[in-house]
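idk why but the lab printer keeps eating my pages so im just putting this in chat instead. protein + iron/sulfur cluster:
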Amino acid sequence: MHDTSTAAAAAPFWRTKSLDEMDPAEWESLCDGCGRCCLVKLQDEDTDAIAYTDIGCKLLDDFGCRCRNYPDRQAQVPDCVRLTPQTVRALDWLPPSCGYRLVEEGRDLYWWHPLVSGDPESVHAAGVSVRGKVAALEDELPLEDFIDHMVRWPLRLPRGAVRRKARG
Ligand code: SF4
Ligand code: SF4
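predcted complex ->
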């Protein structure tokens, strides 16, 4: 006979809780630290379509891939989107690797997520983070140059990262 109560107790929170049920510490830990959502995005005036660029927000630490002033970010960057369960459901530009998007879609976290690997470096080793991919920060380039920096990779999963999950 299976002890289902023990199995349920052992299951990690992101498999058993919805985004709405997570406590603040669980919520924050669901971010894998990839930094993809901190890339500047451009919106087409006619279609509203969103395109990523490889330009980082002015507060992005492009090596650590974290915000350099997370507690005060919205005072300094008013259009920084504060993720909540509601915004996660509404945003169509969250990367497919994003921990919030994965849980909202009922999917498991990938092997590189620090909650799974136990190592905050694994998101970089997997090629999922923006480390080494940020061309400039937004205050280092004129606005008219941004359009030359449109990229598609933030909305894709790195192939090698997915292969490793399949083996693992
Ligand atoms: S895309 Fe998701 S997992 Fe990556 S930094 Fe943004 S919130 Fe965190
Ligand atoms: S203010 Fe911080 S959290 Fe917000 S987009 Fe910029 S780097 Fe990311």
